[in-house]
Structure formats: structure tokens, C-alpha cells
Amino acid sequence: MKNFFYVNFRRFKSIAALLLLIFLLTGSESQLFAHGDEDHGDEKTKTTAGDKGTVLHTARIGSLEVSLKHPLFAPDTATSGRLFVTKFETNEPYDKAQTAIEIEGANGSVAQAAVEKSENAGSYAVKFPALPQGTYTIRAKLTYGGETDTATFSGVEVSPASAAAAENGALSWARTLLIAFIFLVVLALLGGLVYFVLRFSENEPIKKETVSV
User: Fold this and answer.
1) Global confidence as pTM
2) Residue after which a domain boundary falls, among 115, 140, 158
3) Same domain, yes or no, for 53 and 153?
4) Is 170 helix (H, G, I), strand (E, B) or coil?
5) How does pLDDT run across 130-151, given as a tens digit for each residue?
6) What's the distance, Cα to Cα, between the start and end of the chain in Å?
7) Cβ-contact 162, 74 below 8 angstroms
8) Spatial CA neighbour of 102 closest among 112, 92, 93, 94
9) Which residues, in sequence order, are CB contacts of 190 under 8 Å at separation 6+?
10) Count of CB atoms situated within 10 Å of the CB of 167
């Protein structure tokens, strides 16, 4: 029985080492536990690229905060995004603003994005037109309280590399799921080993008493 336990323990160590190697090759701890939560911070304008091929722009306009989320832009491809308007201090949805979004190219050309209010307060669906390859500036305009303020997000890239990055983001998400699955398998194997050790320790004294009798 001891030999049996020793052999199985060695097998478990080999499996665990293999799974650990796969974990190191497929991702890191920072990728596994990375998240996309944003805080207000001290900057009035912020742009964050997520690991799923998405971009989040945030800006403070007076007492409000504007958040614009969209996929990475590929040339000559229309896409959709979301616009959120909230109170900066409390993060409550703000539903009394009229919104508009325009995209200005490096050559001065301006295109309009369609903005449609959703059923949720402070939330809007945005439809971006197909844009040629280049660098753009996106402006989100809010009209509220008789005034119009603008959040400006510059340096927005429309390029084939952006589309490739979006695909890599999807692959990264699949890899994260694989890592999580491997982690669960390791836990299951460890739990089985502990159960086997406990069962072995409980049965061993009974067998020794039987032999002595």
C-alpha cells in the first residue's frame, strides 16, 4: 500500500508540474486577475485600452463624467459603442443632457456618429460610421442646463493593427478561461490526493489489528 501511495504521489507531482508549465506558457498572474474597472482619478481626460479589444475614454465635464466605450477601429468598417453620462461625485446616471458625437480626421473632415438614447438612464447607443485609415479626434458634446460642453478624445487610431489587436484580445480572453480551467483541475487533483491520504490513514490501523489477531 505504501508503494502504491508513493507511485501515485509521484504521478500527481508530475501532473502538477506539467500544469504549472502550461500556466507559465499561456499567461501570467497579472493577466488572470486583470480587470477593466476605472476610477475617476485626477485627470480630466483618460483613455484606457482593455484586453478584449476595447477602448474606454473618460472625461470630466463640470459636475458630470462622460464615458465612451468602443471596439478598436478597423479601416472602412462601421462599428458600435456605448456612451454613459453620470454625475462625477456620486456616479449616478444623469438623464437630462442632449448628446452628440463627431469624429474629426487629421485633414479636417468631420463625420457624425449616430447617438440613440437607451432604456437605461444616462446610457446611449453609438453607431460609428466607416472611417478610412488614419488618426482621429472624437468629441462628445453635452447640452444641459442651457450650456454646451465638449469632451475631446484625441489620438484615436483607425488601422489594420487595431483590428489585429482586437483579435488578440479575444484570444487573450480565451487563454484566461483556459488558465482558470487548469487551475480548477489542479485544485480537483489536490483535493483527490488529500481525500486519498485521509482514507489511507483511517484504514491502516484497522488492517494492522486484523493481522495481529
Assistant:
1) 0.57
2) 158
3) yes
4) helix
5) 999 999 999 999 999 889 999 9
6) 20
7) yes
8) 112
9) 16
10) 12
